[in-house]
Design goal:
0% helix, Beta-galactosidase, Chain A, domain 5, mainly beta, ten-stranded antiparallel sheet, single chain, 24 strands
């Protein structure tokens, strides 16, 4: 079942209730993709998962729940743009380069949003982002959010309709908790392989394929991990043991990087994909989330 309001699109399945922001209504910044910006996920009318990036209004970059980002490290066309010229940020719009400084994802850039068409049926919503040529770069993107029972699926389809190749990266910043509990004792993050951390934050306790928390974080923590290279079906699983509930994200694409970011109230596993599309070609991938009790 689906319905829409001025700010949100609501989808419901047998077990999930999901709220998706209309592009630009809740988030209109220059960092995250405006489409499929998911601000609420509730399982069995009992367990909520989406939390804000920052609990202090005005801090952070405005992330909430499930929001993905293109080009955190490889902005398309930025180096070619002169100050006050535009460059494309996929899913967001044409951004204006302010000066000669390097691109930094956390900075705020002027945004001219891409036009988006929205279509819906009983259990899905589709966002069609229309291409706008910018110095030879142009992408037609379709993102579909579908619910079935306790599973939420996000399908991506990007077609390069410009004259230049598209080379960047994408990941989803999963701003998750369970029923707004503080991150700490009771939360366990699991992977299907032994975790090889590049650097271990003091707050994390890593053993085998599990991450636990030694105490409630006082601030941000970040850990890039390896070990995923040999896994054919990549997923991560976050469970909250006191309430016996969890989330799994299955990545149906070739992984390029895995990281874990978090702070006092949120933990965000980040799974990256390299986006590489020659003119006239298409790239597709899927992120599938399963919400469960045990």
């Amino acid at each position: 079942m689906s319905n829409t309001s001025n700010k949100h699109i609501n989808l419901e399945s047998g077990r999930l209730s999901v709220q998706i922001a209309h592009p630009g209504s809740v988030y209109n910044g220059s960092r995250f993709d405006w489409t499929a910006f998911i601000t609420k996920i509730v399982l069995d009318n009992k367990y909520s998962f989406c939390v804000p990036e920052s609990e202090i209004p005005g801090q952070g970059s405005g992330g909430f729940g499930l929001c993905n980002e293109f080009g955190i490290n490889t902005p398309i066309g930025y180096d070619e743009a002169k100050p006050q010229e535009k460059f494309p940020k996929l899913g967001t719009g044409l951004l204006t380069r302010p000066d000669e400084s390097d691109y930094f994802f956390f900075d705020k850039y002027e945004v001219e949003p891409f036009p988006v068409k929205i279509s819906m049926d009983a259990n899905a919503v589709v966002f069609d982002v229309e291409p706008v040529d910018c110095n030879g770069y142009a992408v037609k993107m379709t993102k579909a959010v579908t619910l079935k029972d306790n599973i939420l699926t996000v399908d991506y389809c990007l077609k390069n309709v410009g004259s230049k190749s598209i080379k960047t990266e994408e990941y989803c910043h999963n701003f998750f908790s369970v029923n707004n509990n503080r991150i700490g004792d009771g939360f366990v993050l699991k992977f299907p392989y032994d975790i090889k951390p590049i650097e271990i934050p003091e707050v994390m306790n890593i053993k085998g394929n599990e991450i636990r928390w030694n105490f409630v974080p006082k601030g941000d923590f970040y850990c890039q991990i390896e070990g995923f290279e040999s896994v054919r079906q990549h997923y991560w699983e976050l469970v909250y043991e006191p309430e016996r509930v969890g989330i799994r994200e299955y990545s149906e694409f070739e992984i390029s990087k895995v990281a874990v970011w978090g702070t006092t109230h949120v933990v965000s596993p980040e799974i990256f994909i390299n986006v590489d599309i020659a003119p006239g070609k298409t790239q597709e991938w899927t992120r599938r989330y399963e919400f469960f009790t045990f």
